[in-house]
Structure formats: C-alpha cells, structure tokens
Specification:
The structure is a single chain. The chain has one helix at 92-102; strands spanning 20-27, 31-37, 40-46, 53-56, 62-71, 76-88, 106-112, 117-120, 127-135, 143-152. It has 153 residues and is mainly β. The strands form three sheets. The protein has a four-stranded antiparallel beta sheet with strand order 4-1-7-8, with no helix packed on it. Strands 5-6-10-9 form a four-stranded antiparallel beta sheet, covered by helices on one side. A two-stranded antiparallel sheet has the order 2-3. The longest helix is centred in the middle third of the chain and has 11 residues, at 92-102. It is globular and about 60 Å long. The two termini are 22 Å apart. The relative contact order is 0.21.
C-alpha cells in the first residue's frame, strides 16, 4: 500500500499569532459522533442534555500540542495530544469543577488566538495527568490552578 503525498508546504505570506483564549470541555461519553469533511470537524453529535463547558482564559495561560509518534518495532503510529492550562484565583466552585474535570475522560475544543478551533481527544479522550493548586509565599506570587491533560489517538 502506498501513502501518496497530497500537497507541499510554502511559507505563509502573513504573520501568525500564537496562544489560545479559551477551551471548551465535555465528558468523552457525551459525544456520540464527530463528522469530518476534508479533515475538518464539521459536526459534533452529543447525547441529549449534554454540553461543552467554556473556560475563558487570560493571555499566555494555555499551551497545546499534537505530537506524532511512530514505533518502528511494531510499525504503528499514534498522536499524543496535550492541553495544559492555568486559571487564576481560587474559589470552592472552581476547585469543585477542576475535580470533576480530573475524574472524567474529556474532549477539549481549544480556540486559538487566531480564531481557529482545534479538537483534542475527539476519538479516545483526554485524561487529566495533574491538577495543582498553587498559592505562593510572596504577595505577588501566582495563586490558582494548573492542569495538564494528555491523550493518545
């Protein structure tokens, strides 16, 4: 079987902006179907009554990556999706929500600062690897939560 290349790459003529402004989460079990058209998500079908929850973040509070990994020993590949984000401040409501994120397998839709939305964990889900509450010693220290999610597909 051959895997034909379908396009090349050229340097974009316009500059781009990095970073993300928000992330939407739902439980993996809430999504019943994802429709792709030309490798772009065009529809998401969800169980009745379920929804994505929106987390609006300050600048420079999120990073994402999708890394290709190949195992030559068995000839298989997969992608490792990572979503890391930080929230400022601490309330019991936010802490409870962070706990609920931590105990569920999730799907994340991230809105990049360029306006592009990307889905992470759409087929196998994401797990919260770490969820850390931080409150520094100095008065100007960070105070909030840091979360790291990862999934393989």
């Amino acid at each position: 079987m051959t895997c034909a290349l379908t396009s090349g790459y050229s340097i974009p003529s316009c500059k781009t902006v990095a970073g993300s402004s928000e992330v939407l989460f739902t439980e993996f079990s809430n999504v019943t179907a994802i429709t792709l058209t030309s490798n772009v998500v065009t529809a998401i079908t969800m169980a009745t009554g379920s929804q994505f929850r929106r987390y609006v973040l300050d600048n420079e509070m999120m990073s994402t990556s999708s890394n290709y990994a190949f195992d030559p020993k068995n000839g298989t590949y997969h992608y490792i999706h990572k979503v890391d984000f930080t929230t400022k401040g601490w309330t019991t409501t936010v802490k409870a929500e962070i706990h609920l994120l931590s105990i569920n397998k999730l799907i994340a839709i991230v809105k990049e600062n360029s306006g592009v939305y990307r889905i992470y964990g759409g087929y196998k889900g994401l797990d919260v690897l770490t969820a850390t509450d931080e409150n520094g010693a100095e008065l100007n220290s960070f105070h909030g939560q840091k979360m790291a999610l990862e999934g393989k597909e």
